[in-house]
């Protein structure tokens, strides 16, 4: 079994659809055959969240969403844990940073982008890829599903681990591989751009029904007349239908587009129904976990301990190698 690592952000109060598709759905597919790890990247979130209440709220919402969306039987191959509960993760980061060239870090997109946007950034933004590297190599992860513009993170992780190996003439880290799923790389949303919090065009998996409807209805479409035939492959609504509907349903709707006498408005209603049908069974599960959050906390405690142990073992090995 390979070890797959993915993460949830503590930056949002709840999972959005895009996040679900590239992160969790991917993971659920992997978890049929592979050892799958999902962690709450809450130390990373400290770079942007400066308010304890928000941090706690987001943690809870994210955990509720994840636990509600993962089928019970799949939990056998999935481990969910919290980055902040891993005692040695920052110590590992420190040792790695002692062998990592400053010039490498200056090339990090995450740092360059933030620097272009803000006049003052914090040191954690600069060190961001270092901690990410630790997240991966501390547990001998094989594969990290990432989207294209994050490829650099994985190259950094490999370079940083390699530098340690070279400096100390050892081999204690696994070299991780990236997995990119082209289908969900850029899911257009509302205005046709990639779904993203910064464009305010994202949509939560557990969005309230009326808000979901408002958002679906506001998706930007073409301006053909009712009679005109329409091209489904050019349409933001259909792009989402394709991701959530069965193959038969997709074909059926595609035919309607091509036949004409079909408004985009009709397609939006179909999409709304498809999304509602997808979410409905999970809403019940989420309500159950909301009322029984201690079940989640207990499971997390167990998993946090398991992952903590792995990271500590890796740390001990590193310490021996560096002579401390
Ligand atoms: N940097 C990721 C993000 O921006 C989160 C993250 C932290 C991560 N550590 C990681 C991703 C390790 C992959 C592997 O969302």
Topology summary:
Layout: E1 3-8, H1 17-30, E2 35-40, H2 42-45, H3 52-69, E3 78-82, H4 89-97, H5 102-106, H6 109-117, H7 123-137, E4 143-145, H8 151-168, E5 177-179, E6 188-189, E7 193-194, H9 209-217, H10 236-244, H11 247-259, H12 264-291, H13 293-322
Parallel strand pairs: 1-2, 2-3, 4-5
Antiparallel strand pairs: 6-7
Tryptophan binds next to strand 1 and helix 7.
CA(first)-CA(last) distance: 33 Å
Determine the strand fraction and express it as a percent band.
5-15%
Low-confidence stretches: none
Assigned CATH superfamily of the largest domain: HUPs
Secondary structure category: mainly alpha
Estimate the global geometry from the Cα principal axes.
globular
CATH class of the largest domain: Alpha Beta
Q: From the coordinates shown, what is the CATH architecture of the largest domain? A: 3-Layer(aba) Sandwich
Q: Major sheet: order of its strands?
A: 1-2-3
| Helix content class | 55-70%
- What count of helical segments does DSSP give? 13
Detailed description of the structure:
- The chain has helices at residues 17-30, 42-45, 52-69, 89-97, 102-106, 109-117, 123-137, 151-168, 209-217, 236-244, 247-259, 264-291, 293-322, and strands at 3-8, 35-40, 78-82, 143-145, 177-179, 188-189, 193-194.
- The chain has 324 residues and is mainly α.
- The protein has two domains: 3-186 and 293-322, HUPs (Rossmann fold, 3-Layer(aba) Sandwich); 209-285, Tyrosyl-Transfer RNA Synthetase (Orthogonal Bundle), CATH 1.10.240.
- A three-stranded parallel beta sheet has the order 1-2-3. Strands 4-5 form a two-stranded parallel sheet. Strands 6-7 form a two-stranded antiparallel ribbon.
- The longest helix has 30 residues, at 293-322.
- 34% of the residues are buried.
- The model has no long low-confidence stretch (mean pLDDT 91).
- The site of tryptophan has 9 residues, from strand 1 and helix 7.
């Amino acid at each position: 079994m390979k070890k797959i690592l993915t993460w949830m952000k503590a930056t949002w109060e709840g999972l959005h659809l895009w996040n679900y598709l590239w992160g969790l759905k991917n993971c659920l597919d992997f978890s049929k055959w592979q050892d799958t790890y999902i962690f709450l990247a809450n130390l990373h979130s400290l770079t942007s969240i400066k308010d304890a209440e928000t941090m706690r709220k987001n943690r809870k919402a994210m955990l509720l969403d994840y636990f509600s969306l993962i089928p019970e039987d799949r939990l056998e191959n999935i481990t969910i844990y919290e980055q902040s509960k891993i005692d040695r993760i920052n110590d590992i980061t420190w040792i790695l940073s002692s062998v990592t060239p400053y010039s490498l870090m200056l090339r990090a997109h995450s740092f360059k982008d933030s620097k272009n946007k803000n006049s003052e950034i914090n040191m954690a933004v600069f060190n961001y890829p270092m901690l990410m590297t630790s997240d991966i190599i501390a547990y001998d992860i094989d594969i990290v599903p990432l989207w294209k513009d994050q490829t650099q993170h994985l190259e950094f992780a490999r370079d940083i681990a390699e530098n340690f190996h070279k400096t100390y003439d050892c081999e204690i880290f696994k070299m991780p591989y990236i997995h990119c799923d082209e289908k969900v790389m850029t899911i257009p949303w509302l205005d046709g751009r990639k779904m993203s919090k910064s464009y305010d065009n994202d949509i939560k998996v557990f969005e309230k029904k009326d808000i979901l409807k408002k958002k679906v209805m506001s998706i930007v479409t073409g301006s053909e007349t009712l009679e005109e035939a329409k091209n489904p492959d050019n349409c933001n609504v259909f792009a989402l239908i394709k991701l959530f509907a069965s193959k038969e349903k997709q074909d059926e709707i595609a035919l309607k587009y091509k036949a004409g006498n079909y408004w985009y408005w009709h397609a939006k209603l179909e999409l709304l129904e498809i999304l509602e049908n997808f979410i409905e069974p999970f809403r019940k599960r989420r309500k159950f976990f909301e009322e029984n959050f201690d079940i989640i906390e207990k499971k997390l405690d167990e998993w946090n301990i398991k992952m903590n142990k792995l990271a500590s073992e890796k740390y001990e090995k590193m310490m021996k190698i560096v002579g401390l």
